[in-house]
Amino acid sequence: MLTELIEHLKNKKILILGFGVEGKSTYNFLRKHFPEKTLAVRYHKQDFNEETKYLQNDKKLNFYTGDEYLKDIEQYDLILKSPGVTFKGIDTTKFIHKVTSQLELFFEYYDCYTIGITGTKGKSTTSSLIHQMLQEQGKKTRLLGNIGIPIFDEIEDIKQDEIVVLEISSHGLEYVKKSPNIGIILNVYEEHLDHYESLEKYIEAKYNIVKYQKENDVAIFNMDNELMKQYSYKFLEKDYGITMNKDQKEERTNVIYLENNAIYQKEKLLYHTTDERNLKGNYMLNNIMFVLAVSEILKLDFTQTINTINAFEPLEHRMEFVGTFDGVEYYNNSIATIPEATIDAVETLEKVDTLIVGGNDRGVNQNGLIEFLLKSNVKNIICLPKTGEFIFEKIVNNENHNVIMVKTMEEAVRNAKEVTAKGSICLLSPAASSYGYFKNFQERGKIFKELVRSN
């Protein structure tokens, strides 16, 4: 598998487009196998930073930065694009056929069994839970992709008898022409409108995870999601639908549905939702239903599957319990970059007295969140720029809520400590991305936790 990939790349004039986590991984892989090959890296950032200084010693590397990093890229035979690079507003006709990625090359040259997971929310939790389920049932498996481990970091070690679990973002799927053996679409919500020409293009990218599946492959999809219903993709009869609406259970041959505090496939009981588990809320329960579908498809031991699900701990920044300080419970849900995730978090925790909300404005509609908050029992709403400014304006005059506008996370936490009632919860759940204010959602959550724990 590796030999064929190396042969494919050997005589190509290659451009590495983007130099984040995946771009660095691509460079390291190519330089290891082609020490004398001239490579090109194009990066939108203007200057070398501390992480890329070592590239200045590579005499076989052409490094381009700044506003014109996309100029004349059609000169290359192969363009290995990082997921974060957008072609929004760019005429791609001269080079789009040359664009590929780690993901597509892996699908093209590796023959092991693959499970791919995408969705606006829930990818990391579902991917990690599937991976752990497989591990605990003795399967050779590894977890790669958007979870933080680029495919090329481990591609030399992957064996044909392994099951590779891939967390895949819409950006990673945007230009692929291959799909995994099991393709999962958890949900689709309005997001990343700064990256795509339209919401339709964002949804299209998600569906590439199942679009190119072969005869024996299986898709698992959300039957309840409104945007997915509108997209009207024609799933095959063998594919699995996931629904929390028992009235839809007769619509397909393979439906996993929720009814009376239990999850079923046809009449077969799969899981009691009243079981004690660490993954709380409807979003997490929805993720669990997809994991149950994978267990069914792969014919795994169901008792062990349930044990894995119930023992699984939430990932960092996802409804993460930070601790109790001065009688107040603090939760870090920095992963919540859309309104729907914040609404679910508030409903799940129930005792939220203070909500810290707001972040980068990517054009995502906040009106549903505002309507929810106006009707909620959340007394204190602390608003961060930029989307928080809009939320503040809409709620500030409502006498049932104490709405506070702040500029920094430090201000937000200081105010939260002053106003949150003892015996209740303070929740960070921004309903917006972190970019422009923090490096990523992980940094935002980390800073929140540090501030909460400090005096």
Notes on the structure:
The chain is an alpha/beta fold. The chain is built from 15 helices and 20 strands. The protein has helices at residues 2-10, 21-33, 102-109, 123-136, 151-154, 170-173, 199-211, 226-231, 281-297, 302-311, 339-349, 367-375, 387-395, 409-419, 441-453, and strands at residues 14-17, 39-43, 61-65, 78-81, 99-100, 113-118, 141-145, 163-167, 182-185, 218-222, 240-243, 255-259, 262-265, 268-272, 320-325, 328-332, 352-357, 380-383, 402-405, 425-428. The chain has a 9-stranded mixed beta sheet with strand order 7-8-6-9-10-11-12-13-14, with helices on both faces. Helix 12 links the parallel strand 17 (352-357) and strand 18. Helix 4 packs across helix 10, helix 9 packs antiparallel against helix 10 and helix 14 packs across helix 15 (441-453).
List the helices and strands and how they pair.
Elements: H1 2-10, E1 14-17, H2 21-33, E2 39-43, E3 61-65, E4 78-81, E5 99-100, H3 102-109, E6 113-118, H4 123-136, E7 141-145, H5 151-154, E8 163-167, H6 170-173, E9 182-185, H7 199-211, E10 218-222, H8 226-231, E11 240-243, E12 255-259, E13 262-265, E14 268-272, H9 281-297, H10 302-311, E15 320-325, E16 328-332, H11 339-349, E17 352-357, H12 367-375, E18 380-383, H13 387-395, E19 402-405, H14 409-419, E20 425-428, H15 441-453
Parallel strand pairs: 1-2, 1-4, 2-3, 4-5, 6-8, 6-9, 7-8, 9-10, 10-11, 11-12, 16-20, 17-18, 17-20, 18-19
Antiparallel strand pairs: 12-13, 13-14, 15-16
Helix pairs in contact: 4-9, 4-10, 9-10, 11-12, 14-15
